[in-house]
Amino acid sequence: MDFEEVVQTRRSVHEYSDESIDDATLERIFELATLAPSGYNLQPWEFLALRDDDQKAALQAVANDQEHVTGADTTVVVLGNTDPMAHANSVFDDWLAKDYLPSEDVKNAVLGNVEAMAEMPEDDRRVWSTRSTALAAMSVMYAAWNEGVASCPMEGFDADGLVEAFDIPDGYEPVMLITLGYPADETADIENERKERRPVDEVLHIDEFNPTDDTVVADD
Amino acid sequence: MDFEEVVQTRRSVHEYSDESIDDATLERIFELATLAPSGYNLQPWEFLALRDDDQKAALQAVANDQEHVTGADTTVVVLGNTDPMAHANSVFDDWLAKDYLPSEDVKNAVLGNVEAMAEMPEDDRRVWSTRSTALAAMSVMYAAWNEGVASCPMEGFDADGLVEAFDIPDGYEPVMLITLGYPADETADIENERKERRPVDEVLHIDEFNPTDDTVVADD
């Protein structure tokens, strides 16, 4: 699909058809999504894709009982590793092999920077992980829609309950949920007028920051 | 451009040509980017686009002196409002006008949910704001590349120094920087082999979460 069409026609969808997403399509979505950038290319993202009905039901129970969690073919728990060092060694070996780093010494210096990041307080590491992981999450939603698969991002869930229900080890931040599935015929989520966005001249500030809290949203 | 081509050819670029991004192109990039989803459509994002040379130099001074901050035509400070209530009233007026909410009473109930979010500790509100703001930031980078404008996301900067240098009021989280500009001819950032990504079968977990820290990155 044309890029602009993907962005302009993507909507958050809550009603899905019974059609299943085949494995190859799911793989293609995540293949593209993982081309997203991340700080130092550390790629803290992990995606727990729930496809089994019982698993989706267990998620719905910790997600304010929102029905599209089980209505979707696949509901993804997007997790962020809060340890910057988790994949640093292999990532920087790749940099070295591709001449992004000139020597083993420089590699060790860069590793030192990441070690320092790993010493940040937990709250800062949560923010760090959420930042890069959300870049990949956005990419999942666009890549899905490019395949005709609709999505809905969700942040309303009980993080502690989720961690317990799915045996998530310490050190992974549940960043968001994303439901994935083919949209139901004529679902209002696609047919209805899109929810208004704050206008560009309100959110884009050239050379000087003058934010306003007085959003005027057209109600035509 | 075709969606897959945008995603597959987007690279993080540090070397830019002298060509300026015209205002209409910049506006089109942010117009598309703000179609990104956000929790409750609250759109906490603000974009401070520095185009003036002195302003970009002031940013470089608080961004580890990274040269592409001034080398780029435009360097964007991506900010996230940490107050979920900031735009809630106008956003939910829009929901009411478009029948996403059935009545003023339901609108007030939803506002109550957001008021509760606004009572979260500051660290949770930083995570909240970073999550939705990063969705828009990813969209900026794709929308830019669709116009031939390259980008580079950066998280290495002195947040306190930035807030002071640009008079950012309390309550805005500096989420990341994004340089924007037309790439320099034959820049290595585009010509070089892409940095490896963790493979899909490592990051995508079906129904059961089995993360590994032993990333094997091909070094071909």
What attributes does this structure have?
homodimer; 220 residues; alpha+beta; NADH Oxidase; 4-stranded antiparallel β-sheet; 10 helices
Describe the 3D structure.
The structure is a homodimer of 220-residue chains. Chain A is of the alpha+beta class and 220 residues long. The first copy, chain A, has a single domain, classed as NADH Oxidase, CATH 3.40.109. Chain A is 44% helix and 15% strand. Chain A has 10 helices and 5 strands; from the N terminus they run ααβααβαααβαβααβ. Chain A has helices spanning 3-9, 23-33, 53-61, 68-71, 88-97, 104-118, 122-146, 159-165, 188-191, 200-203; strands spanning 45-50, 74-81, 150-154, 172-181, 204-206. Chain A has a 4-stranded antiparallel sheet, sandwiched between helices. In chain A, helix 2 crosses helix 7. The longest helix of chain A is centred in the middle third of the chain and has 25 residues, at 122-146. The model of chain A has no long low-confidence stretch (mean pLDDT 95). At the A-B interface, helix 1, helix 2, strand 1, strand 2 and helix 5 of A face helix 1, helix 2, strand 1, strand 2 and helix 5 of B. Strand 5 of chain A pairs parallel with strand 1 (45-50) of chain B.
User: What is the structural class of chain A?
Assistant: alpha+beta
Shape call of chain A: globular
Q: In the residues of chain A, how many domains can be counted?
A: 1
Query: Poorly predicted ranges of chain A (pLDDT <50, ≥5 residues)?
Result: none
Radius of gyration of chain A: 20 Å
Give the full name of the CATH homologous superfamily of chain A: NADH Oxidase
What kind of sheet is the major sheet of chain A? 4 strands, antiparallel
